[in-house]
Every structure is written in C-alpha cells, then in structure tokens.
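thought: fold this chain, then report.
action: predict
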Amino acid sequence: MSVLSSLSRNRVAQTGYRRLLESGFVPRRAFAHYFMNTAGIRSRVHLQNYYSMFFPDDLTPVDARVWLYDSQGSLLAHRTFSIPAFGQLYLEMEDIAGENLDSEGMIVVDVLPPKATRHKLKTLPNIQALTVQTPFWVSYRDADDNYMYVHSIEVYRGRVFGAVWPLNQVMAHATQARAPWESWRLLDVNLLDELHVIVMNHSATPGTTEVRVISQAGDVLWSEEVSLKTRESRRVSVPQDKINEWRLAGEHDSVRVSLSTILSDNGKPYVLMRYGGGPLSMHHG
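observation:
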C-alpha cells in the first residue's frame, strides 16, 4: 500500500496532508533517462517549461536541475539551467558535463516550479493525489546524423522533492513492485543484426534481474544475470553468434526481450538494435 493510500484512510492525516499540498508542498519526482555518449552515439537532452503551459499567466522562467551518473552510478556532473516561459532547452552532454564525455548511464532532471506557481498547484484537480512530474526526451544520433528519439517513462525512485522532509523520505524509500516483464514487440530474426538491452536501477535499493531473449511462446533462448546498485545501468549485448544460430536454425522467426523482474515500478529496459544493415534504433522494450 502506498503512502498516499494510507493517508486516504486516516481523516486527520488526510486533512493535514491537504493543507500541506495547498501551501505548495507538493511531492515532485524527477524523471530518469538513459544517455549514451559512446560507441559512435551522441545524446542530446530536450527539456521544456511545462509550468508556463499550465499556468500561462505566470511568464516566469524555471530552473532545471540536471544530474549525470555513469554506468556505475557515480556522479559525473550536476548543473542547473534556466528555461524561459514557454521555452525549451536542447542540451548536449558537453553542456552538462563541461567536456565531451565518453560515457553512458543515467540522467536525472528535476524542473522546479516557480514560487508564484507553486501556490497555484492547489487549483489542479484531485489535489489529494497530486504529484508533480516533468518528463523529458533524449535523442540519440550517430555519425551520419541518423536520429532516435525516446521519451522518459520512469522517475528516479530514490529521491522525492517538494514535500515536507518526513514525507519525502518515506516516499523515496517505498517498496518497489519488482514484477516480471515481457515485451510484446516481435523482433524479426532474419533481419536482426545487433541486439542490446539496457537495464537501469531507478530504485533506492540494489537489485538483480535476468535479461532474457525469449521465443514467441515465452521459452528462454538466451539469458544473462545483471546486478545493479541504485542509479547503475548496464548495456547487455546479445552475442552475435546466438543471433546467427537462431537465424540458421530457422526454428524461430521472431524473438522478444524480457526481464525476470524490473527493478522499479516502471523500470522497463531500453532496446537498442540494428535491422538489415541499417542504422541503430532505440525504443522502450
């Protein structure tokens, strides 16, 4: 049961929590995404001032706090950028880190509501369940300027902003629903040249999962175990000889990707693949 669900069962706590929300102390979760600035791929971050869209009378710039972590979960850079009202930012990794990194890992973005806007959040519907989130996009491009665009789908679960301190801590350490996951996207074995699966740990606690390639029927054709601490990521490459083996055997026309368990509530993997000698493509599993 979530913290907010527990609050809804206690009238006194519910009234107190509503007053906090109306005062502007609304929980805010920072989305976390994968960046890849290595192996011939370069990433660019796309940020937007969402608050001016929902509160157009407040023509106020916002601050976006950006953290870069390498694949081992170590902090590479932390910078704050200003986004004008109704504006956008396109940030290269050099803009964030101050250098042309040869790295990959997790990027976390928290867009802070302006002071004037924070006290207007209470006008949004269903304030009792309100959580502020500011998703963003990352583009990936190769040396020939072939672009891939992927939106963020999961927040970094290990930290919550905006709310009062005790609630921030409780929400940040809530138990994650680490459930099995299977993609329904079929990958044509006869066209598949490369297959990589990027696993990330968006939670505050370590976790272990098994990256799998499965048949349409769900049989495991290949697997590799991955253990990740908080904010760690791993790009797991399916061996080329396994792909060739499936193609030559002719037993499976299509395969799918799965994880024995995702490491946070919506911590689905990224899939990076190459079809028919074409450019790489990236998508959520």
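thought: worth noting. The mean pLDDT is 92.
final: tokens above.
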